[in-house]
Design goal:
four-stranded antiparallel beta sheet, 12% helix, mainly beta, four-stranded mixed beta sheet
Amino acid sequence: MKNLIVIVLCIGLFASCDMNKYTSVYIDNQNNFPIEVGIKTNNIETVYNVAANSTMDTLRKFTDIEYEDGEWEVTLTNGTTGKLIKKHNHGKYYQGDLSNSFSMKTKGNYIEFSVDI
């Protein structure tokens, strides 16, 4: 009976674990217009829509990434006009192993990126 309880507890504990890989994404838009931030790392591509004068703090799942070397490809687009503001490659990663966090701050022509391990 005790063994059965231990087995059930172990299965329940394992089932509650999240085996996915995530990067924390923080975007601070200090512009008077919405922006679209595109992030591409190998085969994983994500677009975030951030309202004017607001921030976004979320998780980016990259469990199914191809295990190749690369750079973070970041595009910043005006959410109202669709005009590309900036396209930038930032930070390197190896064998699909991404960092723990990505942050971006933008105000007018000023754009600051940070990729932390």
